[in-house]
Amino acid sequence: MYDTFGQQLQSPSNYWEYVSEASASIGFRTNLPAESYIQYGPTEAYGQQTSLTDRRYAVHLHRLTGLTPGTRYQYRVVIEDERGNRVFGPNRSFTSQEMPTAIRIPEDMPGNAPYSLNTQGATYLVTQDLVVNGKAFDLTADNVTLDLGGRTIVYNNRAQSISGGWTDYLDNAAFGIKAMGYPDNVRILNGTIRQGAGNNAGHRDEAIGFNPIYARIGSNFELAGVEMDYGGPQLIGLYLHWGPGDARIHHNVFLDRGDVILNRHGAGSRSMIYAAGSTGSGQIYDNLIKRTRQMGLHGNQVYNNEIYIDSYTTNSFGISRGDNALYRNNRIFGTGYHVVGIGWGKGNTYRNNFVHLVGQGPDFRDTEYGNQESLNGFRLTQYAGSTADYSDNLYELNTILIKGGACNGSSCTEARGIQHSADASIRNNVIRDNVIKVDMASSIRQAAAVVTQGLRDRCGTEEPILWEAIR
């Protein structure tokens, strides 16, 4: 960590601000993992501060609350690393908004949830914490901003019973926010969406239903400064379904509290899926995945994110597979049943990613491949019977560390730094200038920094893979 990111804790960088009427969301990065909080107030004496983070991170999001509209505020970030080094960021300032034309929820929307956001061009402002038994918001209009006002919205606070196909779940399940009709120019900002005591599962194949956010969205969608907190079986935190590829998903926090997966195939259980035609030029950056039970992020431009995987099933990818994608400067940490830092595809660039996986020993989390724990930095697998084209990939300047491992009865941790198939359908792949370190207990025999593999029925037909060492 220190060799890669610096020997000393540096001042916070890459600030992002969204300022509302009585709240503000502030994001930033630190070079080393650090606890953080923000001091703020009308003068440089500050007087208020946000809560201390629950542990050390490199990607940070804080919420400033209790602001007076139209008032200038001063703030500074305070960070502290594992060695007790404390750094104060520079004094910064902003002026809280005055929002006289905003539609206020719940004051200006009589009746109970779900609240219908159907006024084109409107800014909706949530002014108090909300707890609803079912769905919280239906969003259908273009050019809408939903400012959560720094508030917490709890949905699915009462359990529901739904049967049938995924369309039944789409029509009848509770959601935090459900956006339909492909509205353009939608922004969702600045608050927390939490699944309540109902804790329902999404559809077992499609993972649709009871999502914090489910959106069939149009162009120019932005989600920023939002925390998504959920735990029901078979859930995806942010489900972007059948939309265009220009969304910007940044400075959000995902917390998956669940440990049940009904079906690892299909959509599975993820922090986010950016699906079915939505993977073009969309930007996914500066998000913090505090925990995911299976997969983290899915998209084609994924950078500067921090992801923690607690794998409960096979193929738990920090960043799942895509084509013609750029994956750079992500920090991915993981443990559990079968964790993979980054998956595979065609025409991808994997650059400057930091993957750190830690073995704790098999603990009977799943039965698909017996009692196992498998830790894999990068992986590209050609399955038997497949001729999929996984060509033109570049892996460079990545750091992969795999540490620990133990045995539980006859089952032991397995570790692979980079696992890459050779095949006639896989061409022009280059792996260069990476640092790979696998440090396992002496009892572990199934561990290697580099694993090469292929299919027996294709021996002699494989295209070469070029490995280049740091010079």
Provide a compact summary of the structure.
The chain is mainly beta. Helices cover 2% and strands 45% of the residues. The strands form 4 sheets. The chain has a 22-stranded parallel sheet that branches. Strands 1, 2, 3, 4, 5, 6 and 7 form a 7-stranded antiparallel sheet that branches. A 6-stranded parallel sheet has the order 9-12-15-17-19-22, with no helix packed on it.
Description:
- This protein is mainly beta and 471 residues long.
- The chain has 2 domains: 2-95, Immunoglobulins (Immunoglobulin-like, Sandwich); 103-468, 3 Solenoid (Pectate Lyase C-like), CATH 2.160.20.
- The chain is 2% helix and 45% strand.
- It contains 2 helices and 41 strands.
- The strands form 4 sheets. The chain has a 22-stranded parallel beta sheet that branches. Strands 1, 2, 3, 4, 5, 6 and 7 form a 7-stranded antiparallel beta sheet that branches.
- β2 (23-41) and β3 form a beta hairpin.
- The chain is globular.
- The mean pLDDT is 95.
